[in-house]
């Protein structure tokens, strides 16, 4: 059962995968605005500016409970074997 | 240790171009190589000729430097060591007695003293330099330590101390004198593990002389960074810092405390830190960390005197220290990181002396357990707590140092600073409100800039901070609730005001609206938690905390944007922005869950959003590609919308929108069946079951499979041949829509079929012949569906229908009736090939394919529960729980303070903050003087409002004028008795309507007001218009009923009011009867039905109320019938039962028993009640 496999996945791993997915989606959805921010006068070049942007974007993961995060990550993992079966 | 000999070549050649060249007036001293101790003795013998003295000292210095630097295994080294030892032996005082008067190295000391008299700077500098080297050398060898200690003791003699002090406070340009002296002191204090540190500190008037000033003598000017300070030629500051740190290292805790209390030294140490070279910054930070902050022996107050707000600010300035060169960054830690960890420890650890324990949301000087007289609490409520409204513009705090320090930080521009501020907020919650009150100038006006994003991130984190335990960081709740303004400031920090948030939501940059939405989501979640804490059962005064909770929600609403703006923002989000859509839908859902009173006021029709979401999801599942995580995310958005649909009364599940092929219900069914594997669908399933039950699509009796056969069948057909599905959906949608429109019709035909089936098959009447009405409607619609249909459609239907019937049969529905239906359907299929074959498939509830899709097993559990439970019991609800559920505070309770407060308020505040309502409700006060005064004040308020520029001033003025006119002229003397409750309640609720022109009752209230200047005090205003007439605005029927019920509850307060409720004949009968009839509407949602129960509960609190309810309104059978419409084990059924018990316990039982001939008693006892 795919769900059983996924349940074994430790909490930390799920959180890390979810954060990476969240960032990927956010940068995709707000690509245009992010470019504008990066060209704003007060944007610090170098790692500090980027660190602040990433920090600001990824804190939104707090909106999702660990259960919700697992749901989303598990969806990705259970699809692939199903697709292979087809 | 570095030496100072290279005054020529290198420096002059331009080692440091920025460094000012020192003009050397004297020639470099001469020197000679030393071969014997005798020679050394002669060289250092006191001589009044300073040239000779310098020659001797310079020779000795070179000799010592060689000793320190050379290889210690060579014979040369041994020889030199011997020479030195012999020399030291020769200069040693003979006895201890002698040592008191004379000293070690008498010649050198005498030379030093002589130079002091002559003011010879070169010798004054050369002696300490030589002595420092000598001490360093002596400390390296165990057998020479005694000599070293002797030298140290010599230095402690008054003469030498004077000379050192003189050197230390010499002109600040003469670093060549100060630095060697500091080095000498450092060597002395470190000597032999700090053996003589104590006496050196005792002589601090000499040894610490001018230390604060010397700490400020750096190589560079203000603003520059001495990153390229030559490590071999450290500045005076570097030497002073090292001396200070060594002192910290070797002094005992009490002396450390004394040293740290020297404010000017600490200030001098920290002042220049930002300009220091990196190695020195690291030495300072690590030194202070290891020797002070993390040293448990150093008392707390000593740490506190080091870590004052100025020190913290200086360390914080290192956040912007320039990054190190590549060479340095390899072996040195990052300075901003080091400063960050220093500050994190210093500010958040209670043992460091900076952090003081606070009482959470209760400011300093406030006693949350102060006794407030009961009578005052009853009369004035929260207003009786003097400090409740005092902290809107200033919050006194215990953590003064931190509060000052916080103002120096820029959490919006740097992640680490933001982390630090949040960490401080976490350990000192009192600072949150204070921080934003004192930082008012920084606004949240939306702008796509890095600063705005940083600020939004910081505010988000502030909003996610946990609430302090019991609001006061204690194990138990205090007596009084915390100041509301402080709680709100912690949930939605001050910069997040209504205007700024509204502008963010409407901003064209979608990221700004996304950030604002996220902040609002966490704020609402926090509000929810806070309100739950206000309603904690352990509160001593529940009424007071309840009032505070309402006020909190009100203040939150005043600060958060209008829900309409959130709806508009959600509407404008493009379909592919899944994260944004999810967040916005979650926000709306939270509004419905946390502050439904606000959510329901908005005219939000969720249907179109739901339809679009369903359409998008269906399209996605048809494509069978893309990221499954995206699908799961979209599903979360859908779940949010479904939850909203559940809360909003006007959801149309079975009407097909123009651009859609299927109704929302069928679309949802489709989403459920066609969702990709692995996606959790339990919430969707819950909604499907809920709607099916509400719309009577399936029998709701216990044990009936409900929607299970249909879902099972659809999944089965899809797994067999997915190409059938597009032809099945329209047919199914048609059937379900018809069934939902006329459920009774199909129930009747089902009963007819059941009768035919049982009579023709001669079945006993005891067998329950029940099938799902879905089967009946399918049988009816089949001929229309196959008429003119092509082969594909016929194939799809013939694949679907028989399977559905078989599944229904296996699920336990009547086989005979299903056979009848099956025959009827078969008859319609002309083509023999299309005729179905029975699917023989073992059927089990707990192996549903749908269950495989869930990971939590909720569905399975629920199904087995519903089947496993043969007879459920009504849950027992006791009096306290009933009171908690149904008791409503008296909305017209007199708040006499309103008389005093309103004159100082603006027009907006009068209407929006409820002062007008409080004043009007005083007309029911039991004291004639208060009523009279209220009447005069109402007129004054009306005049004030009319003169103001408040937008709705005309209507409010009219209302206030009419009620005062009615109170004084309609044959009623306000001095004789209170105004009838219903009139006052109406006025109060009408004010709420008038302040919002979008309110669905706005037209009706205005029409009523313009009808005449005086109201009939024997009538209940506007009841007929709401109950009998069409709503003025479409889809607002339930909103109007909700308003009316709240108004009715407030209007029912006294026996006289109750009389009005049953005597007053309106068009359809007594008022209460008409209100009770509302509950028979099957589409009415539970919250509204509960309002009716609350009205009844209110009636039971009035004298004679329960008796009237039983004898005049047949309330016993009404409650029985209403309770029976819920599942027997539901909470609602329990509440109905508990209310019945309460009515019985509060009525005149003797009279009621006689009236009903013990019938009522029988009903009550028959239900197992006492």
TrEMBL record, chain A:
Q: Where in the cell is it found?
A: Nucleus, Nucleolus
The question of whether Nucleus is a record keyword is answered with: yes
Work out whether the entry's keyword set contains Nucleus. Answer: yes
User: Its GO biological process terms?
Assistant: ribosomal large subunit assembly
- Pfam families annotated for this entry? Rsa3
Its family remark reads:
Belongs to the RSA3 family.
UniProt name for this protein: Ribosome assembly protein 3
Q: Which organism is it from?
A: Diplogelasinospora grovesii
UniProtKB/TrEMBL annotation, chain B:
Query: Where do Basic and acidic residues bias regions lie?
Result: 853-864
Q: Which residues form the URB1 central HEAT repeat domain?
A: 648-840
- Residue limits of the URB1 C-terminal domain? 919-1118
Q: Which residues form the URB1 N-terminal domain?
A: 105-455
Gene Ontology process terms (BP): maturation of 5.8S rRNA from tricistronic rRNA transcript (SSU-rRNA, 5.8S rRNA, LSU-rRNA); maturation of LSU-rRNA from tricistronic rRNA transcript (SSU-rRNA, 5.8S rRNA, LSU-rRNA)
Q: Name one GO cellular component term.
A: nucleolus
Which stretches of sequence are listed as region Disordered? 1-24, 831-872
Protein's name in the database? Nucleolar pre-ribosomal-associated protein 1
The species this protein was found in = Diplogelasinospora grovesii
């Amino acid at each position: 059962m795919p769900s059983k496999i996924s349940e074994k996945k430790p909490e930390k791993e799920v959180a890390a995968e979810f954060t990476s997915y969240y960032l990927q989606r956010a940068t995709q959805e707000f690509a245009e605005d992010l470019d504008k921010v990066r060209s704003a006068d007060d944007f610090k070049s170098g790692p500090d500016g980027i660190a602040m942007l990433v920090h600001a974007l990824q804190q939104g993961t707090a909106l999702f409970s660990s259960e919700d995060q697992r749901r989303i990550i598990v969806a990705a993992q259970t699809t692939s074997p199903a697709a292979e079966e087809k | 240790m570095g030496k100072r000999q290279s005054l020529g070549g290198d420096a002059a050649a331009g080692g440091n171009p920025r460094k000012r060249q020192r003009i050397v007036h004297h020639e470099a001293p001469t020197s000679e190589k030393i071969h014997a101790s005798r020679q050394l003795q002669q060289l250092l013998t006191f001589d009044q000729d300073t040239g000779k003295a310098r020659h001797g000292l310079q020779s000795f210095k070179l000799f010592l430097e060689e000793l320190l630097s050379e290889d210690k295994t060579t014979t040369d080294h041994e020889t030199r060591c011997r020479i030195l030892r012999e020399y030291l032996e020769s200069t040693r005082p003979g006895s201890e007695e002698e040592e008191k008067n004379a000293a070690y190295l008498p010649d050198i000391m005498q030379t030093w003293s002589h130079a002091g008299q002559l003011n010879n700077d070169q010798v004054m500098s050369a002696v300490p330099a030589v002595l420092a080297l000598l001490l360093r050398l002596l400390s390296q060898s165990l057998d020479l330590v005694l000599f070293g200690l002797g030298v140290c003791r010599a230095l402690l003699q008054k003469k030498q101390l004077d000379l050192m002090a003189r050197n230390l406070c010499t002109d600040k340009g003469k670093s060549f004198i100060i630095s060697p002296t500091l080095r000498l002191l450092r060597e002395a204090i470190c000597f032999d593990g700090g053996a003589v540190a104590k006496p050196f500190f005792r002589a601090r008037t000499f040894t610490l002389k001018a230390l604060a000033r010397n700490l400020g003598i750096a190589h560079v000017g203000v603003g520059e960074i001495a990153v390229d300070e030559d490590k071999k030629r450290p500045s005076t500051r570097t030497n002073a810092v090292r001396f200070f740190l060594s002192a910290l290292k070797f002094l005992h805790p009490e002396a450390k405390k004394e040293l740290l209390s020297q404010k000017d030294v600490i200030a001098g140490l920290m002042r220049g830190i930002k300009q220091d070279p990196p190695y020195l910054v690291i030495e300072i930070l690590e030194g202070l960390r290891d020797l002070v902050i993390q040293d448990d022996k150093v008392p707390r107050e000593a740490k506190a005197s080091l870590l004052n707000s100025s020190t913290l600010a200086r360390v914080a300035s290192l956040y912007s220290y320039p990054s190190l060169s590549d060479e340095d960054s390899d072996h040195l830690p990052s300075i901003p990181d080091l400063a960050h960890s220093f500050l994190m420890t210093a500010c958040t650890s209670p043992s460091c002396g900076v952090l003081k324990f606070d009482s959470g949301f209760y400011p300093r000087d406030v006693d949350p357990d102060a006794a407030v007289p009961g009578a005052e609490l009853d009369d004035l409520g929260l207003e009786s707590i003097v400090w409740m409204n005092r902290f809107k513009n200033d919050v006194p705090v215990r953590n003064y140092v931190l509060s000052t320090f916080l103002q120096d930080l820029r959490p919006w521009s740097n992640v680490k600073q933001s982390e630090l501020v949040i960490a401080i907020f976490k350990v000192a919650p009192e600072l949150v409100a204070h921080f934003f009150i004192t930082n008012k100038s920084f606004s949240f006006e939306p702008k796509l800039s890095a600063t705005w994003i940083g600020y939004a991130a910081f505010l988000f984190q502030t909003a996610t901070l946990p609430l302090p335990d019991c609001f006061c960081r204690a194990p138990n709740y205090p007596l009084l609730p915390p100041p509301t303004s402080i709680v709100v400031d912690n949930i939605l920090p001050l910069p997040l005001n209504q205007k700024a948030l509204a502008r963010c939501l409407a901003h064209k940059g979608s990221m700004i609206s996304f950030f604002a939405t996220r902040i609002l989501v966490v704020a609402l979640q926090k509000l929810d938690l806070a309100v739950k804490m206000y309603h904690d059962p352990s509160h001593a005064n529940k009424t007071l905390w309840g009032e505070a909770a309402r006020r909190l929600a009100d203040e939150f609403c005043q600060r958060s944007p209008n829900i309409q703006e959130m709806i508009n923002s959600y509407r404008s989000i493009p379909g592919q922005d899944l994260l944004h859509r999810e967040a916005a839908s979650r926000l709306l859902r939270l509004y419905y869950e946390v502050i439904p009173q606000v959510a329901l006021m908005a005219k939000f029709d969720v249907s179109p959003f739901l339809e679009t979401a369903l359409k998008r999801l269906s399209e996605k599942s048809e494509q069978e590609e893309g990221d499954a995580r995206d699908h799961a995310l979209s599903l979360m958005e859908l779940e949010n919308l479904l939850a909203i649909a559940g809360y909003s009364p006007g959801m149309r599940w079975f009407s097909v929108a123009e651009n859609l092929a299927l109704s929302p219900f069928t679309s949802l069914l489709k989403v459920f069946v066609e969702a990709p594997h692995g996606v959790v669908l339990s919430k969707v399933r819950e909604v499907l079951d809920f709607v099916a039950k509400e719309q009577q699509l399936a029998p709701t009796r216990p044990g009936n499979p409900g929607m299970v056969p249909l879902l099972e069948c659809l999944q089965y057909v899809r797994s067999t041949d997915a190409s059938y599905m597009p032809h099945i959906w329209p047919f199914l949608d048609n059937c379900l829509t018809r069934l939902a429109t006329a459920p009774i019709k199909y129930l009747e035909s089902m009963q007819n079929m059941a009768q035919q089936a049982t009579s023709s098959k001669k079945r006993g009447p005891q067998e329950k012949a029940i099938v799902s009405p879905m089967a009946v409607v399918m049988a009816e619609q089949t001929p229309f569906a196959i008429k003119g249909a092509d082969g594909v459609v016929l194939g799809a239907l013939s694949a679907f229908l028989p399977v559905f019937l078989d599944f229904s049969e296996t699920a336990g529905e009547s086989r005979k009736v299903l056979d009848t239906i099956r025959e009827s359907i078969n008859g319609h299929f002309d083509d023999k090939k299309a005729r179905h074959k029975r699917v023989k498939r073992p059927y089990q509830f707990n192996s549903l394919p749908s269950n495989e899709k869930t990971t939590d097993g909720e569905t399975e559990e629920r199904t087995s529960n519903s089947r496993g439970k043969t007879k459920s019991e009504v849950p027992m609800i006791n009096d306290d729980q009933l009171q908690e559920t149904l008791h409503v505070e008296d909305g017209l309770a007199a708040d006499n303070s309103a008389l005093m407060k309103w004159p100082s308020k603006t027009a907006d505040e009068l209407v929006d903050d409820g002062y007008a309502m409080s004043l009007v409700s005083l007309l029911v006060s039991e004291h004639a003087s208060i009523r009279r005064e209220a009447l005069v004040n109402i007129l004054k308020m009306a005049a004030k409002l009319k003169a103001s520029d408040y937008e709705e001033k005309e209507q409010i003025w009219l209302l206030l004028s009419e009620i005062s006119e009615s109170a004084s002229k309609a044959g009623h003397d306000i001095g004789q008795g209170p105004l009838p409750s219903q009139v006052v309640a109406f006025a109060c609720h009408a004010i709420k309507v008038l302040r919002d022109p979008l309110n669905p009752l706005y037209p009706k209230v205005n029409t009523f007001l313009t009808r005449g200047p005086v109201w009939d005090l024997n009538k209940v205003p506007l009841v007929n218009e709401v109950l009998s007439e069409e709503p003025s605005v479409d889809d607002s029927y339930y909103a109007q009923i909700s308003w009316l019920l709240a108004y009715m509850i407030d209007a029912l307060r006294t026996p006289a009011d109750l009389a009005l409720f049953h005597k007053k004949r309106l068009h359809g009968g007594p008022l209460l009867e008409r209100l009770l009839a509302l509950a028979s509407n099957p589409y009415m949602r539970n919250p509204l039905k509960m309002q009716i129960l609350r009205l009844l509960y209110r009636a039971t609190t009035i004298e004679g109320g329960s008796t009237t309810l039983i004898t005049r309104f047949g309330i016993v059978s009404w409650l029985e019938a209403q309770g029976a419409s819920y599942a027997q084990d539901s909470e609602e059924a329990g509440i109905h039962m508990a209310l019945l018990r309460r009515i019985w316990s509060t009525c005149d039982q003797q009279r009621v028993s006689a009236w009903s001939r013990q019938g009522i008693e029988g009903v009550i006892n028959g239900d197992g009640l006492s």
